[in-house]
């Protein structure tokens, strides 16, 4: 019941289709919180111990450092944009069957652009949109997704194009000036933060009832679904706490929100954000203690406590929390489920 609570989103797609890799800009027009490259191998483990011998001649330990969040992929913290771009193109890695890539979420931040005529295609928008930094420099828009909205047609829900799009703008700068149609149209923009998913079947996080692999759970007591007997006690099916499952103050919901916020704001992978907001022990999460707290207090702390990610300094060694975390989480728990949350278009297009 408790394992997998607030489970991790599926991992980026590896191998099924070509992995899109982006480049860090080499001028200083945009900021990045760090220069990171992901290395994975289709259907196999991607251990730093196997990767290091392949690239040690070209990259020194003062240039790159590995961090392994799980066996399936290694994150490489690079000392500069140039080194990261080179590593993502390394031929020795490729020849050995590894995919080295800079994911979209490390190269760009997602923003919503409002009031974009639904008749305009994603391709048209990508070709006709420009973003400018406060100093007037051009900032590239790497990807455009039309958002969807749900309507009821004869009682059946249907997803149609909304009047807003999600754009991935390179770097971490605050929302730049976004212009459309040869620069004639000024656009309103806001930062995009992914909403957490909670399953309607088992009430765990980061998947939907459609893809749920668990049995149905009773929303009131968190036990296997039952109709023939009354609930023995009240328990949150999402986190196991003593509050109602639907409570907006469920600590696991707050944690999921914080993770999504940190991913968006600080260009982090889910693994990295999960490390910033580790799961608390159950005893700390009674309804009374949560309800009396400011639900956004954790977010405010983020600004101050956020660990500095490497930029121009050599990356720091992995924090000690990593080993304890790995003990709690079976490393291959997600084997066979390799779809990506962060770059999966179908997901990104939906609004909820
Ligand atoms: Zn489920
Ligand atoms: Zn029950
Ligand atoms: Zn809860």
Q: Any key phrases for this structure?
A:
23% helix, 4-stranded antiparallel sheet, disordered C terminus, 11 helices, binds zinc ion, 352 residues, alpha+beta
Describe the structure.
The chain has 352 residues and is α+β, with helices and mostly antiparallel strands. Helices cover 23% and strands 20% of the residues. It contains eleven helices and twelve strands. It has helices spanning 48-55, 81-88, 91-95, 104-107, 122-128, 251-266, 270-276, 287-291, 297-305, 321-328, 345-349, and strands at 35-40, 64-70, 73-78, 99-101, 108-113, 129-132, 138-139, 141-153, 156-170, 177-180, 185-186, 189-191. The strands form three sheets. Strands 2-3-1-4 form a four-stranded antiparallel β-sheet. A four-stranded antiparallel β-sheet has the order 8-9-5-12. Strands 7-6-10-11 form a four-stranded antiparallel β-sheet. A hairpin with a 2-residue loop joins strand 8 and strand 9 (156-170). The protein is globular and about 65 Å long. The protein starts with 34 loop residues before the first strand and ends with a helix. Mean pLDDT is 80; it is low at 1-5 and 284-352. Bound molecules: zinc ion (3 copies).
How would you summarize the topology of this molecule?
Elements lengths: L34 E6 L7 H8 L8 E7 L2 E6 L2 H8 L2 H5 L3 E3 L2 H4 E6 L8 H7 E4 L5 E2 L1 E13 L2 E15 L6 E4 L4 E2 L2 E3 L59 H16 L3 H7 L10 H5 L5 H9 L15 H8 L16 H5 L3
Antiparallel strand pairs: 1-3, 1-4, 2-3, 5-9, 5-12, 6-7, 6-10, 8-9, 10-11
Helix pairs in contact: 6-7
Bound molecules: zinc ion (3 copies).
The site of one zinc ion (ZN) has 6 residues, from loops.
